Amino acid sequence: MNLSNLKPAEGSTKNRKRIGRGTGSGRGGTSTRGHKGAGSRSGTTTKVGFEGGQMPLQRRVPKVGFKNPNRVEYVGVNLDVLQALTEKYNLSSVDFDTMKEHGLVSKNGLIKILGRGELKAKLEVKAHAFTATAQKAIEAAGGSIVKL
């Protein structure tokens, strides 16, 4: 084998269609553009989504609602989850890093403590937001809250 006899693998290359090179080529005459009309002339384009005059999909489907760009999305963590964490790992305070470590929240998540379940452990809880019931339950158990 040397450089003079290298060639592409069999069937890996195709010859391009040579349009407008005489009637004998099979693609002469109208050059595959059909007869007359805008499509046969130069410089024609159709709109994105044009379906030949049929009502296009983006106009057939109704518009619904809107997305608020200022919405703040919290990850909810309930009191019973905090209680289970403290029993399992013997914690005295729960903060963002602890919750991230145990897979409750991703690195960019905001945490909101919710009031489901009961909390027996005395905990210092650090989170971005608290519901009123969660706040009362934490303070009733002798713990404290810190808003991040």
Automatic annotation (TrEMBL):
GO BP annotations listed: translation
Gene3D superfamilies with a match to the protein in the record: 3.100.10.10
Compositional bias of kind Gly residues: 21-31
GO molecular function: rRNA binding; structural constituent of ribosome
Cellular component GO terms held in the UniProt record: cytosolic large ribosomal subunit
The keyword Transcription regulation is annotated on this UniProt entry: no
Record carries keyword Ribosomal protein: yes
Chain positions covered by the region annotation Disordered: 1-62
Keywords: Ribonucleoprotein, Ribosomal protein, RNA-binding, rRNA-binding
PANTHER family assigned to the protein according to its UniProt record, in alphabetical order: 50S RIBOSOMAL PROTEIN L15, LARGE RIBOSOMAL SUBUNIT PROTEIN UL15M
Subunit description: Part of the 50S ribosomal subunit.
The protein's role, per its UniProt record: Binds to the 23S rRNA.
NCBIfam families: rplO_bact
Family note: Belongs to the universal ribosomal protein uL15 family.
Protein name as it appears in the record: Large ribosomal subunit protein uL15
Classification lineage: Bacteria, Pseudomonadati, Bacteroidota, Sphingobacteriia, Sphingobacteriales
UniProt gene name: rplO
